[in-house]
């Protein structure tokens, strides 16, 4: 058994993640223990598909590039004894088709640029116990289909095709994507399963969640604290069976409480085997000697560096903000906001060297992404002088902070569309509580922006509160028109770093009011073509417009790991694979 500090509170267990549930915590740090997607990506910080980690073998393609055959591994089974089959995959696809408006991974079809996304790009499927054959409407980038699209598809057991607590059998899993009754058949199952998936108090007791195909099963869950325990799934048929019988995830009220337990030592009864260094107690990063300055060496812990994930860090601005949306839509203004963000200063200062910058929409770290010359030339930088110059050049009076617009209009030397004379350069950023290093970063950012005439009000709220506020502005969701900017968390890409699920028009996670046909077209090319030029064009255009994301540095978690405990196994979604954890003398 090993103990590990629990992260933020997971709010769903059903692996059909709705828009308000989709997060790295719910997926990588909770769901993947129990339910594995068809294809697993990014184990141990490598940009590759890990075919040994999921229920499907390497696929084959038809000669015209339209049909993929996904073989299901015969050894994988559900803990109720049933095999994991092509029908289980069909069940998930049927649910996605019927309930796509509720799924965080969904991207709407874009007829203007001629691309559809899963599941709308599927013409037909053919299922058997041993495989599922999927035919698409046109050829696509095959790496994208496997490593991005099918990486989100999680087989669901047929035992979940029920509509109530009595186990009344549903019809969703038996349908095809073009069944005329698909919506009605899946709607009843969706309502029941979604409700059960959000009922945190029953996570560990609901028999639905005892049916798993992953290496672990949920043993216990504290609905008050978020602490939970997972135990080995004895019926797991995958390649990597757990060494440990149980892993307990311990909840803490704050970093000080966890630090106190770490200081007590790794050999104490119920000691943490892996912990997280609080920022105040983290030693300065030393690339030549990672253990230099380790304050827990005498307590029996080694210092370890977390993975460099395929991620972009940012805070998000709301183009739909009733108060300041028009300001955010100006490319020069978001450039100003970016110029005042000192990423390297944050890394070297409050984060003590443990981090790496976000340079643009395609991550520069780890190595392996298709970075174009244009992307490298347009890499985000700290440039306060340029920020001030841009505000002056676009008709803002910087004699006071906030600056006021003195030259309204859409000319090159004017404030921009929708901005009136006398409007102020001001807005509010909300970010998570209980992060002292982040407090320092945001205060420095506020002070830097003020020198360019931009007045930023910074305020903190709990992570869960911020998540509930992050909705798109629409007539039926007026709350989505109220927030200006929120720092909630970045985005971790799958195999290919394209923003189809994040920023395209109608994408499930596009809650920023952002829509740009040229951007959609550039994304479409990365999805349909494996030509490197498609990526170069995408990166060049993205760097030339106002995106609703202001790049920030990526944190690297600093672990305290008990001597003799091996914690290999971390994925591209900030998740952990404790089946790889073991002890040595």
TrEMBL record:
Residues 55-507 form the Solute-binding protein family domain. InterPro entries: SBP_5, SBP_5_dom. Keywords: Signal, Transport. It holds the Pfam family SBP_bac_5. The keyword Signal applies. Its main location: other. The keyword Ligase does not apply. It is found in: Cell envelope. Belongs to the bacterial solute-binding protein 5 family. This is Solute-binding protein family 5 domain-containing protein. It comes from Catenulispora subtropica.
